[in-house]
Design a protein that fits this description.
With 334 residues, the protein is an alpha/beta fold. The chain has three domains: 44 residues, 434 Repressor (Amino-terminal Domain) (Orthogonal Bundle); 127 residues, Response regulator (Rossmann fold, 3-Layer(aba) Sandwich); 130 residues, Rossmann fold, CATH 3.40.50.2300. Strands 2-1-3-4-5-11 form a six-stranded parallel sheet, with helices on both faces. The chain has a six-stranded mixed sheet with strand order 7-6-8-9-10-12. Strand 3, helix 7 and strand 4 form a beta-alpha-beta unit. It starts with 5 loop residues before the first helix and ends in a 9-residue tail after the last strand. One of its GO terms (molecular function) is DNA-binding transcription factor activity. It comes from Bifidobacterium tsurumiense. It holds the Pfam family Peripla_BP_1.
Length: 334
């Protein structure tokens, strides 16, 4: 049979469905012999209790919705793992979906989550309020935003766990200056609609201006394909930039792929640093210098805050310091 039901267990044990239910739920009035019969039937039939039925009785599904932009992105895969690991230890199942950086797909998943009667959600939002998000928030379920914020959302209602880009950015730029670099560039990522990427760009402008002077910093936004990615780097080189910061790790991956690998960028005299300490950056040679958002800490904090909300607490938003990790792609200027 495809699914074993409680009726099948009752039939095998030779007792009523209500008696099986009482035995499975630990009711004291069930005799030890009856409990033994039920346990034996459960083992023989490999019965798994229906969590939906339990949810209807307890008003809790022990299920949390987790929405990330792209599970193929190593950063968001690490984030999802950290959240899931923390929730699993607390006895919760994580229902994971991706928005593919698309508001419509985000909303479709949120509506699907609501149909599953989740206990709440942890979301990396798309940077703007949407119909589905409004519906979710009106349910007054515990909701936590991680990695990205949405303008106009009260942080007391929806706690936010994000990284602070300034500490890692400042340390990376100081290292570049100490190694002799005098002109620095920044590729910001698709900043439109992303308060997080906008904040990173602002952090670069502030830190770089203090260290290098406004006339020696150069900023470009992305949203480009592979062919123009190379052109952006070439434009940076043409104005004398020798050190580059990528604010969005997919852009870094793209640049490496079209510039004949890491060595292809370094051989042109360009040192570089990327946000996000994804696994790829640690596997390739030389390893990519990064500004780490401490994704494990971000995910763990997001899950902990969510669990606090389930207990009726009102936790505050949290910011995690970014950390600069110098590796092989930041070198002494020749």
């Amino acid at each position: 049979m495809a699914y074993v039901t409680i009726k099948d267990v009752a039939k095998r044990a030779g007792i009523s469905v209500s008696t099986v239910s009482c035995a499975l739920n630990g009711k004291d009035r069930i005799s030890n012999e009856t409990k033994r019969l039920v346990e034996q039937a459960v083992q023989e039939l490999h019965y798994i209790p229906d969590s939906r039925a339990r949810a209807m009785r307890s008003l809790s599904t022990k299920t949390v919705g987790l929405l990330v932009p792209d599970i193929r992105n190593g950063y968001f895969a690490d984030l999802a793992y950290a959240v899931q690991d923390e929730l699993s230890q607390a006895g919760y199942c994580t229902y994971i979906g991706t928005s593919s950086e698309n508001v419509r797909q985000q909303d479709a998943f949120i509506m699907d989550m609501l149909s599953q009667h989740i206990d709440g959600a942890i979301i990396v939002p798309q940077g703007q309020m949407s119909d589905a998000l409004r519906r979710l928030l009106k349910r007054q379920l515990p909701v936590v935003f991680v990695d990205r914020s949405i303008e106009g959302v009260d942080a007391e209602t929806v706690p936010l766990v994000v990284s602070d880009p300034i500490p890692g950015m400042r340390d990376a730029l100081r290292d570049m200056k100490d190694l002799g670099h005098r002109k620095v560039g920044y590729i910001s990522g698709p900043v439109l609609g992303s308060p997080t990427l906008q904040e990173r760009e602002l952090a670069f402008r502030q830190c770089a201006t203090q260290l290098f002077g406004e006339e020696n910093i150069f900023v470009e936004s992305s949203g480009f394909g592979q062919s123009s990615c190379e052109l952006v780097i070439q434009r940076m080189l043409s104005v004398g930039v020798t050190a580059l910061v990528f604010g969005y790790s997919p852009d870094t991956v793209q640049a490496i792929s079209v510039m004949d690998g890491v060595d292809g960028i370094l051989n042109q005299g360009m040192s570089f640093v990327s946000f996000d300490d994804i696994e790829l950056f640690r596997l390739i040679k030389p390893q990519v210098s990064v500004i780490s958002q401490q994704v494990q800490k971000l995910g763990g904090l997001g899950a902990q805050i969510f669990l606090d909300m389930l207990r009726g607490e009102k936790p505050e938003s949290q910011r995690v310091d970014t950390v600069y990790m110098q590796r092989g792609t930041v070198q002494l200027i020749g």
